[in-house]
From TrEMBL, chains A, B, C, D:
PANTHER family: METALLOPEPTIDASE, PUTATIVE (AFU_ORTHOLOGUE AFUA_6G09600)-RELATED (PTHR11014:SF63), PEPTIDASE M20 FAMILY MEMBER (PTHR11014). Its cofactor is Mn(2+). Keywords: Hydrolase, Manganese, Metal-binding. It comes from the Bacteria. GO terms for molecular function: hippurate hydrolase activity; metal ion binding; N-acetyldiaminopimelate deacetylase activity. GO terms for biological process: diaminopimelate biosynthetic process. This is Hippurate hydrolase.
Length: 394, 394, 394, 394
């Protein structure tokens, strides 16, 4: 009655969360189109007796439990336009879409934590805001929730929390004070050449040559213009022009991604990028200026010192010193910080490893990205609970 | 009573052919998928009392009219994956497909000529093979008709004829003895890199950079490796890699088009192309070799002297000296010659201009390619008739 | 007594001219610095009883011999900044200077012809102007002689002649009506970057990267902008920037060479060159504009029809049909035509082969360029004589 | 009598050192050719009653003063192949050679410190080794002194010291524990093409295009292959090929400079560099392999903790806290550490600013590099004295 029940119940709960995780993994949805996922989250929250609200495409449930701090904890739930190639039994069933960044872990873990908090209200006091965010990959979701009235829909939090699964040792947690995720920009460059038959290049302004020259010329920015001890990433993630061998197309498109920790470095890189794109179009003889559009812009994620120390101490107490380390600043970006920034709360963001052999493991966004189900899920659920209880626990 | 009738009939015939042309222009079909066009051609031929045969996707009708030479005359009828931007009232109604190379003129003119030959059997003697060919743009159609038994389906021709509309002065005709259209190759290059998150370039083998470097490096072939007085075109008609700014893709694809008049020059260019592609993949650290596949290979088109002189003299007699000139060898290619080569016949191929102001006119394959309906169509019909009658006329 | 004398005299003359050739080959002098060579030419002419004049660094002797046409025949006598690597017994004794273009043959042959004309005045009637020109390689010499009063110093010629040794079969002669040598331009491009310590690239504007990018980008001109059936050469003969690995230099210099047969093509290439240089400097962030200076500009050489036919017929009569062919237009340039153009005379320019195995023979300007002494020299002497006598012979 | 004397003497001493500095600045000598400078240093040391020894091109004087620690302090004295453009009254009088890195300050300061230590032996006890090193710029000097028996010529030091003038605020001092100067490599790349006349590119293997393509392709190493949070510099300091516009040269040479803090990153960059050079030569069709030679290799400079703290505390006591800061790791390299490493001593290396307006000041190795004479020299002399006395002072 006493010992056996929780044991069985815990086992059941664990299996149930694993099934929920597999469900999310099988049914990924692209950013800002996550209707089915959002509905399932609402259904799970309602099953706990909570009253989920849809805000800006996301889902929020407030768990009130007497006096005490207000803690917001956020999980993201969108997937990527990647064709899964993991060979997992529970692989994506959606064509060309995959949870290749592990947001299915985040969402499942937050549902698991909500169950724990609702099940055991005696051991804590305060308010927990379980926030499920759409569209992280495109930097749209956090802004959409803020724009849709998040501040009016929930009490003002005292602190905000978030976590992310990473290609590190499974079950190990990384925390850090200060900059932890880079500032990110996406840039769409459209080059206007002039098409022609492939056999008459002298009548064309060849956008394939111009676009390729831009890609090649951009390579010198990081190595020549950025101070060697500064962080800068300039990736051309896509180059697309033309469909047939013997038609010189009219235009070309590049999609770029920039990552920085220092605004001054970012500003110099943006200026260099614009200068090079315009100059290469001039070199190619373009008669019309290129278009350079910024989109999917991610803020810098900088953990506040106080909540980071509270959470780190709680993790060490829960998981042991050998499982908790310092997360070096990573190259990726997040839009999470827009939420605490809009609500005026300090925040901390930590990472959880998901790989038995992290060396050479496929990185986030790879079609082969496959964190081991356990202990990853257990640790992410428990880390979520531990971090929240570090503020509202009795 | 006498003069008026033919006049009206000619006018009616002219309007009818114009409508037929507009019909073809409105309903373009991609190479080797021209089912609707082929059916319409058959219907037009049957209306003349002929018995069209479907061979290799094309349509052939033999017009027998007593003793005399056997003349094959060919029109092609496929269109291109181009989105029409001419603003013409009779613009393409097919999404992303357009008669951007003018094959609708060729086909309409040959139907017009067939009508004339059938209507006026007294003035000529011999056999005319009206051959409508599919899939010229992909170099598939002529070979397909030959493979499907063309030689058995028609009498052996004594001569073969073909014409093409060009960005030259409307109604002017160009002929030439010897090489008139280049040999052509299409090449598909697939580069195998290694994908990664856009913020982790050091874990990737970036196919965007490698593909761009190949495009840039290929530019030196024509200017450095081809003797300066030799003809060579190396066009990269398409470069495609990646779909999102923050995902470094796994691979990239290039589609190239080569044009030559000299086999030795072509061989050197092909060797250089392969050398550069492999070396640039090595420079980029590729772990897997690139694939280099040749497709859509066009033969050299070299007009035979005798039929060319016969046709040229007939054109001068019909249209006047000021309308007939020498066509300089053009950069484009054709698969027409595969048909006379397979049937053992000499051939000649001429061009007809379609523009009031040829300078700066959009070239074939441009989304803006729009020859004026008249006098282009009239002259192409009459040129077709004149050339055939030069051999079978009484 | 009678037959033997001329034979021995001819043998002596031949040996003597071979020694003279070897002397010139051993003592090459750079363009417009050919003092020693000019003096030796004067000495040889004076030995014939002629009165050589120094004009614009060159030497001219007028051989008057009664009534008849006035024929100017020209040989150039400058050498190149090339370090000879032929292994010839009579290799250059001047450090880093070599007769790598064969002007020593031209000069020796013209001296040989002068000897013949002076020795045998009975067989011809008219005036022969033996013109020895300096500074052909830098396009300075012909202009210098014209500027220094050539027109006043010699009678107006009725025709002008010149010849050049080539990597073709030894003793074979090539003639052609119309364009035979290309128009040539040299261009000096100076790029102004900003130097820095090699470890601080972000403080520099790196001229090495900019200059290299220009070279790479220029490669697309011939293959993309020039019509594929037009002749165009864009060579970067020199790129120079920096002296130490760890100092980023302040500037870079490129030396380019352009060759064309069509002024319109040349104009487009020059415009593209200027556009690319300026745009690449902009891409690299240069704060100061590049300098683009034209120098060593060679005119087009186009043989006039009448003198070419006269000379060709005379060559066939002298050497046999199998030794005289049509010279295809070559890629090189000459300033010879400036002289007949200034004097208002038609002209013809022919080539003489100098190699037993022309395939793979080192081309003019190579450190390995070594035409065989005989029959090359004999044929060039005799061609000179034959061509002159075709106009003034009795 | 008492106060005035030291004042005047100090003034005299100051003026004298300023003159000595100007002397060194006026007479710079290239690395390992510093005969005149070495002689002047010996003369100065002998004037103090010391017995300088010449070792490996450098000069060493041991100042013994009773029991106590043995402190080695080192100044370098070579200059650079840079043409001075500072406009200073005491500008270099040597053609194309300049103290563009400030070693004249280091040497003058160490002579000043030696004077102080010799003049005032009562206030300290121990042994000071004043070491003047040649050839720092080429990484030859420290190794040469070690190879020439430095260890046998001086007592084993307990600590080693060195300082460098920098483009920072004049008189400000920077210290740091751990890595402070990068590891450096120089690389000479020789590309073997095939020369030809500039108008016959198809007969050449163009080394100008190949060398330029290498430079362009190398630009992707830092931005694509090095992790974005790692330090890496890949500079091409020189590209040289060809001398004339119309001769395609036979070969090209590149001089590269690499800087790293992590051996694993350096190893990857070296591998990438070799891969790219070889692949680009293959792309260009080279028939002979390129040569890749390493030279001027600098070790990593990593300050030991204990001496750095001792020296930093002494600087704060002497100059005040506002004048002493943490030096961030700089991009440059030094061979200083070879000396303490060979002698088994811990070491520290600090920097001194030399500019009133450090923002935008010309960096070391610039032809405009001109630290202000004062307070730079005073502070460097005093820093030298302070650091030594921190170990041997009473």
């Amino acid at each position: 009655m006493s010992l056996i029940t929780p044991f069985e119940s815990a086992l059941t709960e664990r299996t149930d969360l694993e099934e929920l995780y597999k469900h999310f993994h099988r049914h990924p949805e692209l950013s800002m189109q996550e209707e089915r996922t959002a509905k399932r989250i609402e259904q799970e929250l309602r099953a706990l007796g909570l009253q989920p609200q849809r805000i800006g495409g996301g889902v929020v449930a407030v768990i009130e439990n007497g006096d005490g701090p207000v803690v917001l904890t956020r999980a993201d739930f969108d997937a990527l336009p990647v064709t899964e190639d993991t060979g997992l039994e529970y692989s994506s069933e959606a064509d060309g879409v995959m949870h290749a960044c592990g947001h299915d872990f985040h969402t499942t873990a937050l549902i698991g934590a909500a169950r724990d908090l609702v099940d055991d209200r005696d051991s804590w006091s305060g308010t927990v805001i379980a926030l499920f965010q759409p569209g992280e990959e495109t930097a749209e979701g956090a802004a959409a929730m803020v724009a849709d009235g998040l501040a009016d829909a929930v009490p003002a939090p005292d602190v905000a929390l978030a976590q992310h699964v990473m290609p590190a040792k499974a079950g190990h947690i990384g925390t850090a004070v200060g900059p932890i995720l880079s500032q990110g920009d996406s840039v769409r460059v459209t080059i206007h050449g002039k098409g022609s038959h492939g056999s008459m290049p002298h009548l064309a302004i060849d956008p394939v040559v111009i676009a390729s020259s831009i890609v090649v010329r951009l390579q010198s920015i990081v190595g020549r213009e950025v101070p060697p001890n500064e962080f800068s990433v300039v990736t051309v993630g896509a180059i697309n022009s033309g469909t047939k061998s013997n038609i010189i197309p009219d235009s070309a498109q590049l999609l770029l991604n920039l990552r920085h920790y220092e605004p001054a470095v970012r500003d110099r890189v943006v200026a260099s990028l614009e200068r090079i794109v315009r100059a290469e179009c001039a070199a190619g003889g373009c008669e019309k200026d290129p278009e350079i559009e910024f989109y999917d812009q991610f803020p810098l994620t900088t953990n506040d010192e106080d909540p980071t120390r509270v959470v780190t101490d709680a993790f060490i107490a829960e998981f042991g010193e050998e499982k908790v380390g310092t997360q070096v600043p990573v190259t990726a970006s997040e839009d999470f910080s827009r939420i605490p920034d809009a609500l005026g709360a300090p925040y901390t963001y930590w990472t959880v490893g998901g790989f038995e052999e992290p060396d050479g493991a496929p990185a986030n966004h790879s079609p082969f990205f496959a964190p081991v189900l356990q202990p990853t899920l257990d640790v992410m659920v428990q880390a979520q609970i531990t971090a929240v209880r570090a503020f509202v626990g009795k």
